[in-house]
Every structure is written in structure tokens, then in C-alpha cells.
């Protein structure tokens, strides 16, 4: 059978980087083909070529056996190829129907006015035919994340796409929404559509894919079927070595409270409450995991705890000291380490060296400063020690931090935050965007910190990460902790329902 989409010998080079090296890829009619790989493996580059965003330096693309050249995404769309990006391309203040017809407007006779009624009718028909129920008249800003994703899929179907490229489609979904998405994907392939499913979640690949292709260092390592492999083998294909997928963390032995938060209210930049009278505590020697769909106040909570955002009400105590309105430096000096959710923006000074970044919180203290004079030798010795201990690559302390890979940037941050007498570690999305090898390392370090007696507040949109690391799970929904569970009671199903705001008694 002729593949609906085929790439042969694709080569794409950027300055200093061979992103795709003679890559071959095929997609059959009616299949879900998953694409795995580390950060920088080349999978996004390949998809951007197939969607017309990039032009390959060499190689060929065929659609249903016919050679094609895409100069833009419009060319790909005309050949039935559509892409749902990881960050949705929707206008929040437009209705569902307006978003879907954007660029393909339906107008009334005369061509001056949008025919919103006809557009809404067509959108409603498509959503009904494909089990993608959504109100065409609803404003996108009022929709939960799962329904926004449906809007993106309907947008492709409205343009008659036969091939759907889904880039990390479950990254912001609850487990229940993920299962609903998988049902939709199966329904679409049952109608003859074909799906390329890009993800880093091995469990989802095994559950949803018909075939799995793995890329490493710009090359296609191999293609397998779920029944012929397991998560361990896929991880090893991705990173080229054996990987420990589940940290053996043992039992926690919590002691005195380190962080105590009572009645905390925090406003966003528009002065709307994002954290609503929230209370929690974290004890020395335990990991409290905050689970929840991104956008329920987690970012504002962490910013308030680390002195980066003012609080409107409530109190924050660290080791019994009132730190409610403390500055970031005061918070740091109280023994708080912070792994920020945006390492590029808030974790590093990218134009500084690795050595400089490793002392960002302590550069003014002995032994790194003598009065107002920095002690370069002490900074270099500190960097060499931490680079070795935390396996930062490349190993030259003089390298600019911005030149490191995502995983190595995160190692620099973790090394800095755990090497200065930290007693409370606030880790926000600590493995976002990292490959399985870097995730393994970061998880081991977080558990080691707990075992050394640190209190750890772990905030993650990845439920697997919460369930793997946490000793207690607090579920955050619309700015509140709606329930806190011991890890033994935190089943995927129960936590998933809570993430959607549904309690068992409801």
C-alpha cells in the first residue's frame, strides 16, 4: 500500500547543527505513528519540514505517492496535511467558529460580511460527525484546555486534512482528557485519517500508537510496534544507554514543618485572584507534590513563596519565621532553593559563564567575595566541583550558560540551588522539556535532597512525575488546594478527577 506521507533522505542543517541526517519516515493510511526522541533529536525539525515551515536541504517528500515541494504551510494544507502545535494557535476573544474559519472565512453575498450562522452550522456539523462536541458560539477564552484542543483539531478537519500532526498534544491535559483525546484519535483513524503523534510520555505511546519511530542525534534509530517493545527499550533507543525510568525513593521520614502557608491570596498582573486563601505545609524530609492542570494558580503561588510576587492576604512562614513579604534575597538567605518553571527566563543569566551562574545567589559572600572584589579562583574551584558532581556537559566552567542544552542548563540550576545550605527546595516544572536521561538525573537529585532532610515542594503539570516523586499529593484547582492525599491513596484516576475539580463526594 502506498503511504499517505513519506519522507526519504531528509537532511536539514543549521549553523553548527545537523538537525536531520538522512531521515526516512512513512505514515500509512489510518494509523497513529508516534515519534519519540530527546530534545534536539530532530523530530520537531522533521515535522516542520513535513508541514512546510522549513525547507529540507536534501531529500524528498511524497504525498500518496506523488512527489511534492512545500514552500509554506499553505502548500501542506492544500495537500491535506495539518498540524496542531503544542501551544495552541487560537484567538481567545473569538468564538469557536470564528477561530476555525480564520483564514478561510465564509462570507455573505457581496463578500463584505462574515456569514457567522453558516460558519457555526458547518462547525457544528464537523464536530458532530467526528465526536468532537463543542459549542461553535462559545468564546475560546471560556473553554477548558481539553475543548480548546478539540477546536484545533476541528480547524484542521474544516480544511479537509487527512494527515494530522499532533505536537505534544497531552502536555496540558488531565488523565481523563488524555483518554478522551485517545478516543478521538482512534475515531479519526477509523475514518481513514492518519496521525503523527509527537510526545515524550512513554506510557502514552504504548497505549495509543500503531507504530513508534525513535530519533537520536538527528538520525532515525528505528521503528517498532508497541507489541514488540517496552518502555525501557524505547528509553534506551532515545538516549543510547540504559535509563532508570522509576526512582526507587523508599519511605519518607518527615520531621518538623519547614514551610507553613495559611490563607494565602495572590493576584495576577490584572489584579485577579489566582491563589485563593490557600493553606499548606511541607515538612523536612518529605516531598509535597502540587498536582493540577497548568493555569490554576501554580505559577503565582511559587512566585509568592519565592518573593517574586506580592501577596494580597495570608501568611508564609519558613522555619517559623514570617516571610510573607520578604524580598527574593531574604527568601534565599532563609535557606530556600528555587528551580523556576522557566529556566531560560528566570533560572540563568545566559550570557554569563557556567561558573558565574553557579554563584548567582552567593557571589557576595565568602569565599566568592572579599569586600567588593570577586574571588575568581574560588568561583572556578566551586564550578569545577559542581560540574563534576552534577555531570554538567561540556565541562568547561567558562562556557556561556546559554550555549548548554536544556538538560545541562537545568543541571546548573539544580547544582546551584542544592549547594548552598538549602533547607526548602521549591521545584517548579523541574523536568519540563527535558529528555528521559535528564529527567532521570533530576528526579534522583530531588529524592536525594529529601533523604538529606530537605523539605521539597514539587509543582508539576506532569501527573506521572508527581506520582513518582511525591510523598503527599495536594491537588490545586482554581487557586485552591481542594484535597491533599497520602501517596498511597493518590491513584491516577482519583487525582485526575480532582484536577478537573471533581471530588468523590460530588
Fill in the keyword field for this structure.
single chain, 506 residues, Rossmann fold, 3 domains, six-stranded mixed beta sheet
Detailed description of the structure:
This protein folds into three domains: 235 residues, 3-Layer(aba) Sandwich (Rossmann fold); 178 residues, P-loop containing nucleotide triphosphate hydrolases (Rossmann fold), CATH 3.40.50.300; 73 residues, no CATH class. The protein is of the alpha/beta class and 506 residues long. Strands 6-7-8-3-9-10 form a six-stranded mixed β-sheet, with helices on both faces. α14 packs parallel to α15. The mean pLDDT is 92. The N and C termini lie far apart (51 Å). The chain is globular and about 70 Å long.
Name the CATH homologous superfamily of the largest domain: P-loop containing nucleotide triphosphate hydrolases
At CATH level 2, the architecture of the largest domain is: 3-Layer(aba) Sandwich
Low-confidence stretches: none
Q: What's the helix count?
A: 17
Could you estimate the helical fraction of the residues in percent? 25-40%
Mean pLDDT: 92
Number of β-strand runs:
22
Any idea of the CATH topology of the largest domain? Rossmann fold
Main sheet attributes: strand count, strand direction, barrel closure: 6 strands, mixed
CATH class of the largest domain equals Alpha Beta
- The shape, in one word, is globular
| Overall tally of domains | 3
The separation of the N and C termini measures 51 Å
Q: Strands across the major sheet, in which order?
A: 6-7-8-3-9-10
| Radius of gyration, whole Å | 25 Å
Q: What share of the residues does DSSP label as strand, in percent?
A: 25-35%
The class by helix and strand makeup works out as: alpha/beta
